[in-house]
TrEMBL record:
<keyword id="KW-0472">Membrane</keyword>
<dbReference type="Pfam" id="PF12811">
    <property type="entry name" value="BaxI_1"/>
</dbReference>
<feature type="transmembrane region" description="Helical">
    <location>
        <begin position="218"/>
        <end position="239"/>
    </location>
</feature>
<feature type="transmembrane region" description="Helical">
    <location>
        <begin position="73"/>
        <end position="92"/>
    </location>
</feature>
<feature type="region of interest" description="Disordered">
    <location>
        <begin position="1"/>
        <end position="36"/>
    </location>
</feature>
<feature type="compositionally biased region" description="Polar residues">
    <location>
        <begin position="1"/>
        <end position="10"/>
    </location>
</feature>
<feature type="transmembrane region" description="Helical">
    <location>
        <begin position="98"/>
        <end position="115"/>
    </location>
</feature>
<keyword id="KW-0812">Transmembrane</keyword>
<protein>
    <submittedName>
        <fullName>Bax inhibitor-1/YccA family protein</fullName>
    </submittedName>
</protein>
<feature type="transmembrane region" description="Helical">
    <location>
        <begin position="148"/>
        <end position="168"/>
    </location>
</feature>
<keyword id="KW-1133">Transmembrane helix</keyword>
<feature type="transmembrane region" description="Helical">
    <location>
        <begin position="251"/>
        <end position="268"/>
    </location>
</feature>
<dbReference type="InterPro" id="IPR010539">
    <property type="entry name" value="BaxI_1-like"/>
</dbReference>
<feature type="compositionally biased region" description="Low complexity">
    <location>
        <begin position="18"/>
        <end position="32"/>
    </location>
</feature>
<feature type="transmembrane region" description="Helical">
    <location>
        <begin position="122"/>
        <end position="142"/>
    </location>
</feature>
<feature type="transmembrane region" description="Helical">
    <location>
        <begin position="180"/>
        <end position="206"/>
    </location>
</feature>
Length: 281
C-alpha cells in the first residue's frame, strides 16, 4: 500500500495468507477473532430463549453492531478537515511563524498515528491541529510567491479528490497488487528526488526551486499530483475493504486520518506547482 496509515493496518491492509491452525490432537482450532485487538469480542453462547428473542428482533443495522460505515468515515473526515481549515486560517492571519511548530509536531504525531494499531481520536485531533499550523504557515509563504496560489490549490485538491472518487466508483481503475506495487516504487523514487533537491538547495548548490525550476519542475509537480491522486484511489479501496469486512466503528478515525494525510500532500503539491508556474512567468 502507498499510505502507511492503511498499509500497516490489519483492518485496511491487504489480506495476509495464513495457515489454518491445528489443535493439539489433530483437531481444527477455532479461528481467532481478527478484531479482538480493537475491542470487538466474538459471540457468546446463548440459550434457546435468547436465540428466539434474537430471531424475533428486527434486523440489526451497522450502527447497532458498531461496525464501520462509510457515513462514519465521511463525518469524521469532514470534521477533521473543518478543524484543519480553521486552524490554518487562524495561523495564516495571526501567526504564520507557527509553521515550524506545526511541521515538527505534525511529523511526530503523524508517525505515531500511522503505526498505532488502535486509533486514538485525541492524537488524531492533535495531529490535525499541528498540521493546520503548518498548512496555514506554508500557505502564507507560498502566497508571497504567487498571489492566488491558495485558491488554485484548494480548487485543484477538491477537483482531484472528486475525480479520483468517481474513477474508483466507476471501476475503470482497479486497485490490484501490481497497481499498488507500481505506486509504491514511484513514490519511493519521488521521495528520494525531493530529499536530494532539498539538500542541494539547503546547502546552496542550487538556488530557487532547485531541480524543480522551469518546465522540468512543472512536469515533476504534475507527476507528484498524479501520484497523490493514485494514492487516494488506493485509500478508497482500503476503506471499502474495511467496511465490507465489518471492521469496528472506531476504525473510522484511522480511515479519516489516512485520507487527511493524502489530502494535505495533494494540497501542498498544488500549492508548490502554482508557485513554480508564477516564478516561470
Amino acid at each position: 500500500m502507498s499510505n502507511p496509515v492503511f498499509s500497516n493496518s490489519d483492518v485496511f491492509g491487504e489480506p495476509r495468507r495464513t495457515g489454518a491452525p491445528r489443535g493439539a490432537r489433530g483437531g481444527t482450532a477455532t479461528a481467532p477473532n481478527p478484531y479482538s485487538q480493537y475491542g470487538t469480542a466474538g459471540p457468546a453462547s446463548m440459550d434457546a430463549s435468547q436465540l428466539g428473542a434474537m430471531y424475533d428482533a428486527p434486523s440489526a443495522t451497522t450502527a447497532d453492531t458498531k461496525r464501520l460505515t462509510y457515513d462514519d468515515v465521511i463525518v469524521k473526515t469532514g470534521g477533521l478537515l473543518a478543524l484543519l481549515v480553521v486552524v490554518a486560517a487562524a495561523t495564516f492571519v495571526l501567526a504564520p511563524g507557527l509553521m515550524w511548530i506545526g511541521l515538527i509536531g505534525g511529523l511526530i504525531l503523524g508517525l505515531v498515528n500511522a503505526f498505532k494499531r488502535n486509533p486514538s481520536p485525541f492524537l488524531i485531533i492533535a495531529y490535525t491541529v499541528f498540521q493546520g499550523m503548518f498548512v496555514g504557515g506554508i500557505s502564507y509563504v507560498y502566497n508571497g510567491f504567487a498571489e492566488g496560489a491558495i485558491t488554485q490549490a484548494v480548487i485543484g485538491t477538491l477537483v482531484t479528490f472528486v475525480g479520483a472518487l468517481l474513477l474508483f466508483r466507476s471501476g475503470k481503475v482497479r486497485v490490484t497488487a501490481k497497481f499498488t506495487r507500481w505506486l509504491m516504487i514511484a513514490m519511493i523514487g519521488y521521495v528520494a528526488f525531493a530529499l536530494i533537491n532539498f539538500v542541494l538547495v539547503a546547502f546552496g548548490v542550487l538556488d530557487g526551486w532547485g531541480l524543480r525550476s522551469g518546465p522540468i519542475g512543472i512536469v515533476i509537480g504534475l507527476i507528484a499530483i498524479g501520484l497523490a491522486a493514485a494514492s487516494l484511489i488506493v485509500d478508497f479501496d482500503s476503506i471499502k475493504r474495511g467496511v465490507e469486512a465489518g471492521a469496528p466503528a472506531k476504525m473510522a478515525w484511522a480511515a479519516a486520518f489516512g485520507l487527511l494525510v493524502t489530502l494535505i500532500w495533494l494540497y501542498l503539491e498544488f500549492l508548490r506547482l502554482a508557485a513554480i508556474f508564477a516564478s516561470s512567468d
